[in-house]
Specification:
Number of strands of chain A: 2
Organism (chain A): Xanthocytophaga flava
Number of domains of chain A: 2
Helix content of chain B: 55-70%
Oligomer: heterodimer
Number of strands of chain B: 0
Pfam families (chain A): Cytochrome_CBB3 (PF13442)
Protein name (chain A): Cytochrome c
Strand content of chain A: under 5%
Low-confidence stretches of chain B: 1-23, 125-143
CATH class of the largest domain in chain A: Mainly Alpha
Keywords (chain A): Heme, Iron, Metal-binding
Mean pLDDT of chain B: 82
Order of helices and strands of chain A: HHEEHHHHHH
Shape of chain B: flat
Structural class of chain B: mainly alpha
GO molecular function, one term (chain A): heme binding
Strand content of chain B: under 5%
């Protein structure tokens, strides 16, 4: 009897110590409460569960590439300006990658420039361009210094580049710069173009 | 390319003789400004290859100075004319077209060449300065290392002193016991006290000790049990190892790349989006392309297989959350919920992401109505009363998030 009690005591203490020692690992998200309420039934794009594999996708995930030729419409406008400045543009960009000359000759910024669009352009420039091209477009951004080959917007070969050229380069890239069309939609690109023109004027 | 050629032409001119070069060259100071504005993106004044060739000694390589002028102003025309050296350079540097600089005058190009020449001779001092700088940098960490060393030494010394004190005390007790046991005039009670031995076995058997151990064990187990129950469904502190050792500290902290550059939909959509490999490649086409971690990225692209980044922040399906509502409309910074991401080597879930945590913030936060006409009437109604919090306009309604 006495012996039994001793064993109980010791196992209690050992148990307590073990539980303290077994803190949750950093790789462990912990126990999930009511998983059938946690997990989406629909195919959520970023769904990631060990037990789930999308049966229709080679890699089992829910993310898909859009069908080739898809024109994204939901997130941007097609109508700009009022009265005399009114423009309607579906922003379908069909000029192929190697035809920057066509873009330079034919494209014109459909987004009428206002204080707001320029401010948007600056914000977008800060998010998507600044770390390479630098705050003032001198090509001296934090990444640009390491990446090398980033031009100076106000340099002699660059300060006259027009709407079409800048839009085409953002969409498809040029030289060492890779395409950024997947990150900024056409309206955003046109706003960035407006701000880049401001930077070109700098000394 | 044009710059390259320009640089090349420059060096030949210099090669013809140092003295004439200096006089026939140009203003190196003016050249420096021109070089930095127009050439430095792709060329170094040393022999380091940036995008195009390093321009040190360029005039020893190019056919003549006129060739440099032509090349800088329009390199594609030079290549198209079938110029042998132009085509050789063009092919050597991956057929990357050099930008044309039609605005640069011959005098400007002379100035740039003068700068390249002067930079080549000045280069060693720059290296030396760099070396000095490194020396200074190493001195600082040594100092902080010294202080921790002192700390350890003091700690060890204290421990030694304690051990010595203990030893002395034990010696005194032994001596005293021996001295007392030799005395004959002790009473029975005193003798009993003297010969007393602690019986550990008996002590453990005593009810007091048993009771104390039992109570402590029950309390401890109770606390642990309660803690682990309270943590169910809360993944705070979750920091999984990702398939590629990507560091937010380096990218967002040191290089100051904006969050939205990779998480493109964070201002537009429900999800912040996990970047696809093409966004990584925007920089890693060039940067660190021999690192084993970056090789994993290349392999993924070659196999056309998405990288399976492990999702850190998960909300249950029965709670609706939209990033754009908080970032774009509310104007909140990412760090509000995600912590100091720009200091994290491995991303960790900082916030508990519980309902209480959401509601707490909705109760405290004033609605950011600045420049948003949608709220004008609401603001007017609330103007005389308490400030308009998120909770005031339905931020804690059940159906806002659960529907």
């Amino acid at each position: 009897m006495n012996h039994l009690r001793k064993v109980t005591f010791l196992s209690l203490i050992a148990g307590a110590l073990l539980t303290v020692a077994c803190q949750r690992e950093h790789d462990d998200p912990g126990t999930e409460y009511a998983p059938n309420m946690y997990h989406a039934i629909s195919y959520e794009p970023f769904r990631q569960e060990a037990s789930f594999k999308n049966p229709y996708n080679k890699f089992g995930n829910n993310l898909w590439l859009p069908v080739p030729g898809t024109v994204a419409r939901r997130n941007y406008q097609t109508k700009f300006g009022k009265d005399s400045t009114f423009v309607e543009d579906l922003m379908i960009y069909n000029i192929p990658k190697d035809s920057i000359g066509i873009a330079e000759r034919t494209l014109k910024n459909p987004v009428p420039q206002t204080e707001q669009t320029l401010a948007d352009g600056k914000e977008l420039y800060t998010r998507y361009c600044q770390h390479c091209h630098g705050e003032t477009g001198k090509g001296d951004g934090t990444v640009g210094k390491v990446f090398k080959g980033v031009p100076n917007y106000s340099g002699s070969g660059y300060k006259d580049m027009n709407d079409g050229h800048i839009f085409h380069v953002i969409t498809y890239g040029k030289g060492r710069m890779w395409p950024h069309g997947s990150q900024v939609n056409p309206v955003e690109r046109w706003k960035i173009v407006q701000y880049v023109h401001e930077l070109q004027k700098q000394q | 390319m044009v710059l390259l050629l320009a640089a090349l032409t420059c060096s030949t001119v210099w090669a013809q003789g140092a003295a004439p070069a200096a006089s026939g060259g140009g203003d190196a100071a003016a050249g420096e400004a021109l070089f930095k504005n127009n050439c430095a993106a792709c060329h170094a004044a040393s022999d380091e290859v940036v995008v195009g060739p390093g321009l040190k000694g360029v005039m020893t390589r190019v056919p003549n100075k006129d060739w440099v002028y032509k090349w800088v102003k329009n390199s594609s025309a030079v290549i198209a004319s079938g110029d042998a050296y132009g085509n050789q350079i063009f092919n050597k540097y991956n057929k990357l077209q050099m930008q044309s600089f039609p605005d640069l005058q011959n005098a400007d190009i002379d100035n740039i060449l003068a700068y390249i020449e002067s930079a080549a001779t000045a280069a060693p001092t720059a290296d030396q300065a760099k070396a000095d700088g490194q020396g200074g940098a190493t001195a600082a960490p040594a100092e902080s290392g010294l202080s921790t060393q002192y700390f350890t030494i003091i700690l060890v010394a204290l421990l030694v002193v304690l051990a010595l004190v203990l030893l002395v005390l034990i010696m005194i007790i032994t001596l005293l016991t021996k001295f007392l046991s030799n005395r004959k005039d002790l009473s029975d009670d005193d003798r009993e006290l003297l010969e007393q031995r602690t019986d550990i076995g008996k002590l453990l058997q005593s009810a007091v000790v048993k009771g104390a151990v039992l109570i402590i064990a029950v309390l401890l187990l109770g606390k642990i049990g309660l803690d682990s129950v309270m943590r169910i469904g809360i993944a705070q502190g979750y920091a999984p190892k990702q398939p590629i050792a990507y560091s937010h500290k380096l990218h967002a902290g040191e290089y100051k790349i904006n969050c939205a550059y990779c998480h493109t939909s964070v201002y537009k959509g429900k999800n912040a989006s996990i970047p696809s490999a093409n966004i990584c490649m925007n920089c890693h086409s060039v940067i660190k392309n021999s690192s084993p971690e970056i090789k994993k990225l290349y392999t993924a692209i070659e196999n056309n297989q998405p990288i399976e980044w492990i999702r850190v922040h998960n909300l249950p399906d029965h709670a609706y959350f939209n990033h754009s509502q908080h970032t774009n409309v509310g104007g909140l910074a990412c760090q509000n919920c995600h912590g100091d991401i720009e200091k994290m080597e491995v991303v960790e879930q900082v916030a508990p992401l519980t309902m209480g945590w959401c509601i707490d913030c909705h109760r405290k936060t004033e609605v950011n109505t600045k420049g948003n006409a949608y709220y004008d009437k609401l603001v007017a109604i609330h103007a005389s009363k308490e400030p308009m919090k998120v909770a005031t306009i339905g931020g804690i309604e059940c159906s806002k998030c659960h529907y």
